[in-house]
Please model this.
Amino acid sequence: MDVKLGIRMLARYPGLSIAGGLAIVMVVVCGAAAGMFHAVVFGALPFGDGGRIVAIENWDTRENRPHPVAFEDFAAWRGMTSLDAVGAYRLVTRNVAIEGEAAEPVRVAEIGAEAFAIARVAPRLGRYLAPEDERDGAPPVIVIGHAEWQRRFAGDPRVIGRTLLVGGTPATIVGVMPEGFGFPVNERHWVPLRLVPSDFAHAPAPSSMPYKQMPPGAVHAFGRLAPGADLAAAQAELAVLGERASQASPAIHAHVRPRVLPYTRWFFDEQHDGEIFLVQGLVLLLLGLVGANVAVLVYARTAARRMEIAVRTALGASRGRIVGQMFVEGLVLSGAAAAAGLMLAGIIRGELAAYIPWHLAPFWVTTSATSSIVLAYVAALALLGGVVIGVIPAMQATSRRAQAGLQHAASSASGWRIGRTYGVLMVAQVAVTVAILPYALSTAWTSVRDALADPGYPAGQFLTARIDVEPGLPPAAAAARLRDRRAEIARRLAAEPGVTDVTFLAGLPGGEPARRIEIEGEPVFRQVGVGRIGVDFVPLFEVPVLAGRAFAAGDTGAGGRHVVVNRSFARHVLGGAALGRRIRPATGEPGPWLEVVGVIEDVPATATGPALAQARLYLPAGEGDAGLGLLAARVRAGEPGKFASRLREVAAAVDPGLLLDDVRPMMALVRDQRRAAQVGAGAAGFFTLSLLLLSATGLYALMSFTVTQRRREIGIRVALGATTGRLLRSIFARALGQLAAGIVLGMTVAGMVAFETGGESTGAAGLLMLPIVAVFVLAVGLLAVAGPTRRGLRIEPSEALKEG
Model:
């Protein structure tokens, strides 16, 4: 019955339902994202006793990051008594294909047979990998995932015994894992791991990213806690082993300590726990902000229902019964908004899926917006929202003070008060809206403009592909092989009648990673985009040289001491005088100073936004530079995508073992790059407009309640001949005061931030928007007040006087 009544109240007060519901939708979208983030970090593996599976790693206490596992370390860990079993894996990329079909690069897990026993998940078909599969001379075998079984073999139950070409070697399929299984990260192919000491000698350096996605070839260890053992016991045993290793080889292990973590926690460093809980806190803060505004709306509506509450109280309804009913009403509103928010989160996730590799995300996280963890998280937010917007107003409405007012005059609003907290909240919201709305508008305009503009270089004429060699060689040998293969591919492509130019890039122009640099004579470090470009980049991409020169052949190699910067770097980092200035990266040991020899136009030329964010420093790269992994071939005529099959044929003819991935027109990469900015702009716009909506609904609620409180006063003043103008000034005074205070505070904050950041926070256009934004927010606020004011002016004096 309470649910039915709650639904009727939503229909009876559509303004409250729409305004409050949209505000809660914003919280739910943020909550869904936070729930997925929480699941990645703290979710348990979906196995039997999945929480007992742990990760083991070496930790460099001096560098505060993971350290590669040595062969002796892994051998010692396998003898631990606090662990039932210890396994290892490494992730490598290999060409995988069915006989007679084109190969495609696939991430494969080379994994020990004990991994499946640790996971305790039965195969869908066939068997696991077995210890005998790891012995020298054993025939190559492979276990595939459910999705691969469906995609390549259409779910054929006779797949066991068939073969897949893995790195050019036929491997017999011996098992199919069930749907959803992707251990250790998100794999669909498992082959035996054959570890020898030399595998550890060339272990690549660990990544410094928060997500510990170590480079391909790094060996990782994991295990299952023994019955009766816990993390503390395993860590104590590891500490003893670490001390022995430190004494045996102090040069290597002096600052290295082994440690054990819950498996899912391994993917994020503990030093980022503060960021995780900050996200959670921001969501709860946002919920509190939204809930407080909607609570004002509900409380104002409750004031209008004072006769109903008085009658129910007189008939014997307890305070708990009334509060419970209003809680259900609030829960209906927050629940409906939660469902809408989940749908919107699913739409956003679909937009993100176009350029985020969800298939590489940890398999224990269902990336759908309807996963169980996200549903639980959003349900908790909806429940909390019901408490904030239903219980709190009900407790206020049924307090002793309010009940005393009801006893004296069932239809009087006396005794109903809203404290100053809500007024302060309105001022704060208006200030935040005014401060960030220019940034959101500027970001949205930039995104739209970039989406419609030409990228500034002939992207539509290029076909791109990422080229690498299969793992297994020492780094120096792999780099030499890759250099030779790339040179041969470039030579053959240049001879093709449909190709005019061939080059290699580190990445798409405009996507250079941010790095710290040091400028000679300046005491502070700068964070700018740093990229590597070949000597043919500037002429090939038709980039104008504004001063000095572009790179030449003599700039590459060990003797090169020159750099090139773009226009934004020269103007906003070096103050305009760029040629001859000396710069060097500020990472690791200080290197030699590099002289600026040229200034080129910004690439992309249409990039807008904060000027410092567009600053780029370019280092010269030779033809054999391992960092140039993106091939770009300019096609003479027609669609570049039509040349993709020929490119694959040429690469296969040069070396069948080459990994040729992501073959597509460069314009497709440009669209993906833009889409990321568009989604960010959309999120900023959604958040800002939601704040604007919150401010408007809050003002609406306050004015509605104020008019209700002053109903009798307004009636008496009308009866005594008060003019409409005097009444309007009286009603609007409070709203104008709050709006003015919020606008002044918001403009002050925006100005201070712009001054501290040198205008980089919003840009010049954003600062120019501030007066327009102030007028806009004022207009929205006054429109929110117009409805309650209109009702106030319609009060009949005779009816108002009867309430006294």
